[in-house]
Design a protein that fits this description.
The protein has about 850 residues and is α+β, with helices and mostly antiparallel strands. Helix 5 crosses helix 14, helix 12 packs antiparallel against helix 18 and helix 16 runs antiparallel to helix 18.
Length: about 850
Amino acid sequence: MTTRVPRWARWLLRASSLVVPAHRRLEWMEEWTAEVEALARSRRETDRDYPSMARFVAGALPHALWMRKEEWTMESVVQDVRFAARVLRRSPGFTAVAALTLALGIGANASIFSLVNGMLLRAPQGIAEPDRLVQIARSYDQAPRWDSFSWPAFELIRSESRGLSGVAGFQDQPFVLGRGAEAEQVLGQLVSGNFFEVLGARPYVGRLLRPSDDVSPGAHAVVVLSHALWTRRFGGDPEVVGQTIHLGGDSYEVVGVAAPGLTGVETIGTPPALWVPTMQHPPYYGELPFSRWGWSWIDVIGRLDGGVSFQQARASMDVVTTRLRDADSVNEDIRVLMAPGVGLDPDGRRQASQLSLLLAVIVGLVLLLTCTNVANLFLARATGRGPEFGVRVAIGAGRARLGRQILTESLLLAVVATLVAVPVVYSADRFLPALFPYALAVPVGADLRVYAFLVGIGLLAGLLFGAVPAWVESRRALADVIRDAASSGARRSTRVRDALVVGQLGLSLGLVSAAALLGRSVLNAHAARPGFEPEGLVVAWIDPAAAGREDEEEGRGLYRRLLDRMVDLPGIQRATLANQAPVVGGHSRSTVMPPGREDVAYEAERIVVGPEYFEGLGIPILRGRGLGGFDDEPEPVVVVNEALADRFWPGEDPVGKILEGSGTWRVVGVAGDVQMRSLRQAARPAVYYPLVHLYQSSMVIHLRSEGSGPSPVALRQAVAEVDPDLPVAAIVDLRSAVTASMGETRTLGFLVGAFAGLALLLAAVGLYGLVSFGAAQRVREMGIRIALGARPDALVRLMLRRGLALAVIGVMAGLGVSWLLGQALAGLLFGIPPDDALTLSGAALLLLATAALAAWIPARRVARVDPAASLRD
């Protein structure tokens, strides 16, 4: 009686047999089927302990792989590589075009990965065991955030934390370095005495700060220089250690220079140029910030103790939260958070990850486009290699062997393209920071991780574009290959090439529409009116306190003299002051409320302004009046914006109302809303305070000018005439700044625009090649048509029909890609919806026009064919 093999076992054997070389597949299948039948018979007829059917059949796949391995000997692999090298060398033009095209996609992907690697994967330099560091932050149950702590809270965390070997704090602080003509403003950091100890950092020259340097306020005026500042400002002189330098009008002793590359714990932002102890913090409104629970200013990091996991340390923060809530009523709703690592806080990491993902998707589409283009080139080239493939089949090569040879050629070409992309990736640290919308405190140059990614993406690209032609050729009937028949094989190749061109056109439309959306967003931002008039407005930052001018009366006198000098500059219409500039920065907030209404208290924008502020910025006064000059406001008064008035006094006239917060104030006017922080954010409730009643040490000069206004040199000279030791930290044109505030949109717009142009070119080349190939195959037919009286324009239309049909299908497919990209970019757009019909229509028309031109050129050439010559051929 014949023993039947179970259906599932037979199915598994058939699946495994696909791995076996074709010429041995039948023999292998018969052998394994007989073995399985014998096993089934033996298990039924005897009681011996035979292996189970499933376990036995599972051994078929390893055996099949072993047989395949026997076919892939090292000798055969070397033979394939040598032959592939000869084939590519015989066609230098094809090899150069394909390698350069592919190198664009590979290089773009590896360069963007280099940026992501620097931002998210690399730890800041100069830190020992960065994976043992943690970030600690303040949040609230009812208002989640990632924020800094007050000094009393920091000290409590430092004393009560369990599982941490050290807890340190830091805060960015501007300093005026030097005096007179040599004075410059640099960014430094106030750090706790154990900051470098927690980091595990080492000095380059001298020593770093110690806990003994940070004991009592103002008692230890010592400074550590960054290696970059030491090299630039002091010429790398090691004798600078022990010398005295001037910071903010005070003398500091240089005790050391940090190691090269040490920039603290943040990867995005301007790196600090120097570090001083936190106890050197300048007074704030005449008071030091070391005893106030309500003044939050210091960021906190810690290092995990040996053997303590992150989860264990984070669990101990619940105890710290309880202690903080018990310590002071201001901490009633506080919650202490912890995050692993340093570089970016969770909010910053999330934003950077979103931007990185968008960049990765865009360059991934570019790689797919380049692979599609090269696959098309390989298919067109394979069609002309029919005689070669016929000879190879005639002497015993199977279909899989032909596919393997093509795949080897594609991988070898991918290796060449990867080598071509190496210089691009190597120089990424030179051009990426210029493109990225944020200042980077860490290098983004290539390292082993980047080069490993480059090799991996290169091999993946080789498999991607090589798989299609390898599959097409391996599916051709052996008889067709031997005859070099153009029937079935050519038809299949043409269908696949059609599909590739349609895919190229669809992806190209997605990139073109994305570039158009981003470009229109930038134009909309340039034309936007964010509640003030940015045209002709220049702002300059000054900080008298950083230059040692901490006395309020002296500071007010300095501001008076500055404004008097500014209005004398040529072209200046108005000059005023404020503690922050719209959109650009310097923002601050404070809690305000109507008297006795703690239930509606709100943290509003806190804007301290000088005379003629509203007139200078073009902010309309909707009710009441604005704020007067230094001598015009005898009592504490404020102006609120419309958003705050609607929040506190809906349906009422706010003029004359009382507002509490940083004192008691009477409202004298309501101003129009201003988008102070971002063009994408709605105007927040804001309060404008007069400088005469709420002194601010750091201010921004606002200059309204005719035309281009004063040059930066003239502005700096005018400030130096008033006070030679007061440097101007930065000068910004607000119109340019408003546009530049769309930094992410501009960066993506530039990259997507460049890639969209490349995509259009590749799609046009692909369609041109497809139409040219079809035209070359129909030269004889066209000659006969012309001989029979066909008109050239009719032949052009005949050839164009197929190319335009593919373009229309590609556009229809690309609308879906465009919609998906638009939704992904929605958060970066301004003044335009992600599915804007006008933008999509314009992109589609541009793509159709490009496709029509690409198809018309070869079609026009065919229409001019000489019928006699074509018939002779």
